[in-house]
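Progress report, Aim 2. The chain analyzed during this reporting quarter is listed below.
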Amino acid sequence: MNDLAKLNKLLHHWMEHNHEHADTYREWAEKAASLGKKELSDTLIKLYNETKKLNELFLKAIDNLK
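Predicted structure tokens for the chain:
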């Protein structure tokens, strides 16, 4: 496997892993909200949103490999 093929696999893996983290942040934001921790929940939602934005960069990087 050449380096570009390996990087392609890595980018897909990192993007999926990033997506999983984002989902976890959202879940904990909901739990924090239910515990009355609104500021914490808001911060976790911001983490979720920023993490989702990273997936756009992963897609751009994958597209740039072509």
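Residues 3-64 form one domain. The chain has one domain: 3-64. These observations will guide the mutagenesis work planned for the next reporting period.
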